[in-house]
Design goal:
Layout lengths: L17 E12 L2 E12 L3 E5 L6 H9 L6 E6 L2 E2 L5 H7 L1 E3 L12 H9 L15 H20 L15 H13 L5 E5 L7 H16 L3 E5 L3 H7 L2 E6 L2 E6 L1 H6 L1 H6 L7
Parallel strand pairs: 3-8, 3-9, 6-7, 7-8
Antiparallel strand pairs: 1-2, 1-4, 4-5, 9-10
């Protein structure tokens, strides 16, 4: 197994350590408080789901965690590193990756090229090496190609490696975006609505992949409306309403909480 899928934190019997600390973060747009005083802690190797009604602030919160937005208040610490003011690309180099609600692929490149693009975050290549590549660059390219093939196998896209990304079916594009994000070698992987638009079989396959990542001690933050997926994969669930914490607990605790059910306008949580 290559390093790209093998966990950096596979400790065997050693307890997982604290990876991510979120302390009282807040974000306002004009007079609207999109996120208010949100706090939580994450250990390595868990799936942490963030749920809530539409407009609760879930995507804004994910943007704050990933660096697309900077919080107005509070602090974020990743593996002991203060993330204050740090843009998304620098967080990616630390091991923080994410996918987006709207798929963002290089649709005119091949499936394989899309995944290879993810590896570049960890190596700055001088422009002249694109014309006269060094031996190090050539070795990197061979290794990236091999690891990209492995990631495509992980998401069952090996047979589409040479296809143009934009030609893939919607569910396959979702899986390709996940493979490309994994190519950045994340320790913290955030997914924004990954099951949106997937059929039941595709959602089940996604659940299996997330479970494997957890087994490999990757920490996952999942923003998702598919409650069947959330309840079957999450270790802990954070319920957000009007930008602030409503409830946090295990899936069983969330399903029993009257305030959570009311926040979903009486919708039953499975």
């Amino acid at each position: 197994m290559s390093d790209v899928l093998a966990s950096r934190t596979a400790f065997g019997g050693v307890p997982a350590r604290r990876l991510f600390d979120v302390r009282d973060i807040g974000k306002s747009f004009g007079g609207i408080h999109a996120v208010r005083s949100v706090s939580f802690e994450l250990d390595e190797g868990i799936v942490f789901a963030i749920i809530g009604p539409n407009g609760a602030g879930k995507s804004t919160l994910l943007n704050l965690l990933s660096g697309n937005y900077q919080p107005d208040t509070g602090s974020l610490t990743f593996d002991g590193v203060d993330l204050a003011g740090m843009p998304a690309y620098r967080r990616a180099r630390l091991g923080i990756a994410r996918t987006f609600q709207k798929i963002r692929l290089f649709k005119h490149l091949t499936v394989l090229e899309n995944v290879i693009a993810g590896f570049h975050i960890h190596r700055q290549v001088p422009i002249w090496e694109y014309v006269w590549p060094s031996r190090v660059s050539l070795a990197d390219r061979r290794r990236w190609r091999e690891e990209a093939q492995e990631l495509l196998s992980f998401v069952r896209l090996s047979d589409r490696a040479d296809a143009i990304a934009g030609s893939l079916a919607y569910g396959q594009q979702r899986m390709l975006e996940i493979a490309r994000a994994l190519a950045t070698r994340p320790r913290l992987f955030m997914l924004d609505e990954p099951a949106a638009g997937l059929n039941n079989a595709e959602a089940s396959f996604l659940l299996e992949r997330l479970d494997i990542l957890r087994q490999r001690r990757m920490t996952v933050i999942l923003v998702e409306h598919n409650m069947d997926l959330v309840m079957n994969v999450a270790d802990r669930i954070f319920v957000l309403e009007t930008g602030q914490k409503l409830f946090t607990g295990t899936p069983a605790e969330v399903q029993r909480d009257p305030a959570v059910i009311a926040a979903y306008l009486g919708e039953e949580l499975h």
